[in-house]
Amino acid sequence: MDSRSHASTQHVLPARHRPDGTWRFTVPPVDGSVPWVRHAVRDLLRRRRAPVGDDLMFAVELVLSELVTNGVRHAALLTPQIGVEVTLLDGWLRLGVEDGHPYRPRALEAVPDQHETGGRGLLLVKAVALEAGGDCGVTPTAGGGKVIWATFPLY
């Protein structure tokens, strides 16, 4: 089996919990990491009894799928591990996906160009987050990469 097609559990670091309500784990930049992250975050939110209904869970899984897929497809050469962070704090859920590529996508700040075919996934992330009453953005990391994040209110 191609190593880009699955996320081996031996390469996935266990989630680390910080006192501020944040869990962080890393996955290899391979296709199989996408469903693994969706399942891991869904299970984490259920274990924490986060007030996440079906519609919000669908939105969370969609956003995670898009962001991790982008890390696999566009940043794998510069990213030995994709970081995933989940924060539950003060009635909010924050998802962050970190990669080592310095390119900051403009799609989160732009209106779609009808002639461009790329970047629509991030426009979807933006639309889903805003529709849920949250937000999204890109933050550079000290190591030269970026974190693409989305927030969702829990109510």
Essential attributes:
155 residues, 6 strands, alpha+beta, 3 helices, Heat Shock Protein 90, 6-stranded antiparallel β-sheet
Q: Can you tell me about this structure?
A:
With 155 residues, the chain is an alpha+beta fold. The protein has a single domain, classed as Heat Shock Protein 90 (2-Layer Sandwich), CATH 3.30.565. Helices cover 31% and strands 25% of the residues. A six-stranded antiparallel sheet has the order 1-2-3-4-6-5, covered by helices on one side. Helix 2 packs antiparallel against helix 3.
Q: What is this structure's SSE topology?
A:
Blueprint: E1 16-18, E2 22-27, H1 33-47, H2 54-74, E3 82-89, E4 92-99, H3 120-131, E5 135-140, E6 146-153
Antiparallel strand pairs: 1-2, 2-3, 3-4, 4-6, 5-6
Number of helices: 3
Mean pLDDT across the residues is: 85
Distance between the termini: 43 Å
Would you report the number of β strands? 6
Q: How does the helix and strand content classify structurally?
A: alpha+beta
Write the H/E string, N to C. EEHHEEHEE
Helix content percent band: 25-40%
How much of the sequence is in beta strands? 25-35%
CATH superfamily: Histidine kinase-like ATPase, C-terminal domain
Main β-sheet, spatial strand arrangement: 1-2-3-4-6-5
| Largest sheet properties | 6 strands, antiparallel
Question: Which class in CATH terms?
Answer: Alpha Beta
Question: What is the CATH topology classification name?
Answer: Heat Shock Protein 90
Tally of individual domains? 1
Question: Which CATH architecture is right?
Answer: 2-Layer Sandwich
Which residue ranges are poorly predicted, with pLDDT under 50 across at least 5 consecutive positions? 1-13
Cα radius of gyration in angstroms? 15 Å
Shape type = globular
GO molecular function, one term: ATP binding
Keywords: ATP-binding, Kinase, Nucleotide-binding, Serine/threonine-protein kinase, Transferase
Domain Histidine kinase/HSP90-like ATPase: 33-130
Organism: Streptomyces lonarensis
